[in-house]
Amino acid sequence: MTSSMGRRLAISLFVSLLVAGLLISQAALWWLEQEQRGQLVEQLRTDAAGVLAALEPGLDGALTLRNERLHPAYRRPYSGRYFIVETSQARWRSRSLWDAPLAPPVAPGVASGLLEGPAEQLLLGYQEQYQVRGQSVTVSVAQDYSPVRQAYQRARAAMLVSWPLILALLALVQQWLLRRGLSPLRRARAEIEQLRQGKRSVLTGNVVRELQPLVEEINRLQQHTEQQLQRSRHAMGDLGHALKTPLAVLKNRCNPDLRLNDPDLHQLMHDQVSQMEGQVRRALSRARVAAGATAANRFSPEEDLPLVIMTLERAHDRQLAFEIRGLNGATLPFEREDMLELFGNLLDNAFKWADSRIAVRFELDEVMCVAVVEDDGPGIPPARRDTVLQRGERLDERQQGYGLGLAIAHDLAVAYQGTLALQDSDPGGLAVKVCLPLPR
Amino acid sequence: MRILLVEDSIALADQLVPLLKEHGYAVDWLADGRDALVRVHDDPFDLVVLDLGLPGMDGLQVLKQWRQEGLSIPVLILTARDSWSERIEGLRQGADDYLTKPFHPDELLLRIQALLRRSHGNANDERLSAGMLKLDESRQTVWHAEEEIALTGAEFRMLRYFMHNPGRLLSKGQLASHLYDNESDRDSNVLEVHVNRLRRKLGKAVIETRRGQGYVYTGQLS
């Protein structure tokens, strides 16, 4: 599968947003939890001071804990707030601890890690050392941290699930938007395809503003190509004209007088001029081929071929029966000039050899146009057919350019990615079968 | 038969003019399209050989204008433009035949013969036949039944024109203008001499004289 710009964009965006979003949310939650823990530690510090305030020196100088001065939560069992006070003589535990054991932090300050408390509570511990009347008093306070911890864990989990879901939804929306945004490109592509098939000559400028320059550029390119083609065709035509008149002069000079006076020179000139003539004709016909470009003029055999026949009747000064079958008025999406050249050469050839009749049969389907030009002449023996097509060999000196016409037609068929084959026709003459793929 | 050759290559014209004269045609040569446009009205040409790539005015334009003016003279296009679409375009503009360069001189002569015969409504034979005579244009001889009769160049030229126009009254002026180009010496006595020579060879009845009017070719031998 080819890579899609939209899909690649979506995947990379999805992954980066997922990773970044998860990292940021987890970091934010961690930071929030630390903040909250800090506040709780502040609270514990206050609590420790409160517990210390409940200590009172008795008459004997020993300290006693006045329970009524304590916060009520210290009296309710498993309330989540606990303390342990230790002096060298005594040790008090908050009533809320009930009979559960609690290991106070080993050192003053905030306990590292959470302490295990009663009823599976996890406690945040804090210890402070005081000097009361010369006695060292250690106050450890603790508070249940489980609810906070659970809340953050829930938040983290929610974030882990909801963020990818949100992103997936966003990705879908983005894909849809992209597809909608790229639809002008698809339209433009369809038009370019039609341009290539010759169904239209310019792209409509009816696209989004961003594509406008592209469409204009393509139109300009199309125009440029067409002009280039025209120019090279004209240049070739000029060259042909420039070469052919001198060739005609040489050919005329190559007359029977010359043959009498200097047979060798006559032979040499005749051969060379004929070769040059053939080369010029074939090169010109190749240069003229417009295959692959937009077919500006469609080929309409039933309209155009009778004109070719009319030309041939005059050129050969003879009348032949001619028929076209299998079209019913259909036109073909090939450049008219090229097709005239192709069929002109084939019919010219048929005209030279036919006894009395020539037929052109067309068979059209979805992908292929097959045309068979047949005559009732002598045909070409199978062994010679390949050479005729490849080299433009002349089979008969008097019938000028016999093979050349077939070779030119063959070149044209190949230029249209088609084939040209020589077969036997029903009446025993030559049948030239041309298969041309229709532009998709 | 008088031919107007419009061709801008001097080298080619230098070959074609003698070639055509050798085969019994009176030839006038022009190299510019604009000259040809006007010139064709000045003399009674029987055929035009027209190049397309002409200075001054393109051959096709010249032809188009002639046809628009209602001029029906046979035109043979002689050009290097050899694509089929150009040939068809040439015929569409009113050309009667189309020959591409380079060409064989015999081919040109054959096409001219065929075109002249067609334009005079003659059948498409190897020989031009009128009355009891058949003219062999390549050998410049005339056949009566199985007998071949030799002709001089001047006799051939004259007989061919007569045979293209059998039964029609042709004045001396008409004959002269179709048989000689502008460079030739036109003496009506010369015409009479040639008519008499033809009668001596072929019999008195072959050409009738209409006193004060001209001649009529009958094609009858005695």
TrEMBL record, chain B:
Does Transcription regulation appear among the keywords? yes
Provide the alphabetized UniProt keywords: DNA-binding, Phosphoprotein, Transcription, Transcription regulation, Two-component regulatory system
All copies of domain OmpR/PhoB-type, residue ranges: 125-219
Q: Which GO terms describe its cellular component?
A: cytosol; protein-DNA complex
* Gene3D superfamilies hit by this protein: 3.40.50.2300, 6.10.250.690, Winged helix-like DNA-binding domain superfamily/Winged helix DNA-binding domain (1.10.10.10)
Residues modified to 4-aspartylphosphate = 51
Q: Which PANTHER family match?
A: REGULATOR OF RPOS (PTHR48111), RESPONSE REGULATOR PROTEIN CARR (PTHR48111:SF37)
Q: What is this protein called?
A: DNA-binding response regulator
The organism encoding this protein is Alcanivorax profundi
Q: Upper lineage ranks?
A: Bacteria, Pseudomonadati, Pseudomonadota, Gammaproteobacteria, Oceanospirillales
